[in-house]
Amino acid sequence: MGKIIFYEDRNFQGRSYECTSECSDLHSHFSRCNSIRVDSGEWMVYERPGYVGYQYFLRKGDYPDYQRWMGFNDCVRSCRMIPMHQSSHRMVIYERPEFGGRTMELTDDCPSLNERFHFSDINSCNAMDGNWIFYEHPSYRGRQYLVRPGEYRRFNEWGSSSSQVGSIRRIALYN
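Structure tokens predicted for Beta/gamma crystallin 'Greek key' domain-containing protein:
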């Protein structure tokens, strides 16, 4: 069981809301979010209700202001706990929509898609095992997108407005 606490003000001040499960709409609990404390579990927090908008991956720890979780603003409207996956990870990425074009299989982290595979546009993927984070830029920087097990026929299905992926990281206990 996970626990995340949202605070309206920086440095864990102001009104707070404690959450222990996914919540598709947090706006009735607080108007803005400037700090977060993750007591347990790993979470994805989203800028808008319904798990859309900017996404931010958070592990156990303190985030005294939104820049610490690489936030673009103080808006957090939904959250989801990510179940831990302790066995192997496996994903196939595709250069084109609908599982077309060149394919590559991943079983570990990839700090630079372009260096490793010589392309950085992913238009579809099949995450067979484990949870993954797609990052907009190499070295795990930029916008983040949670990819849970399943088939994604187009990049917008994992929440992106672009096929650009710079790096990919597994969500694992040993990460």
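The helical segments are 113-117.
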